[in-house]
Write a structure and sequence with these properties.
Length: 105
């Protein structure tokens, strides 16, 4: 018996582990600890602190762009897999319909 395609089930099925938020929080926490240590050791040397803040901001920006890229890549792969499943189901449904027509003749 052919399966019925239900897009709502597909949307809810793949809402599993999403670590990007945790990853960004770990980076920000580590960066703030580094900043605290760095600022304390250099007696609040403003220029070095600004360099460090700029590095943290650029690093987080780069990571967010990379995470977004990989999310889009995974989403495209998921859509392609679902499209292939639907095509296989359509082919089997057509084959079953064809075999039923041949059996009835």
């Amino acid at each position: 018996m052919p399966q019925i395609y239900n897009p709502a089930k597909l949307m809810n099925k793949n809402s599993n582990k999403d670590f990007e938020g945790v990853f960004v929080l770990v980076i920000l926490f580590g960066g703030s600890l580094l900043l605290w240590n760095y600022a304390g050791n250099l007696f609040l040397n403003v220029q070095n602190v600004l360099y460090l803040l700029t590095g943290i901001i650029l690093g987080v920006s780069f990571l967010s762009v990379a995470v977004q890229h990989f999310k889009e890549k995974a989403h495209i792969k998921h859509i392609t897999n679902e499209k292939n499943k639907i095509q296989k189901l359509a082919i089997t449904a057509l084959e079953e319909e064809h075999s039923l027509k041949n059996d009835s003749l």
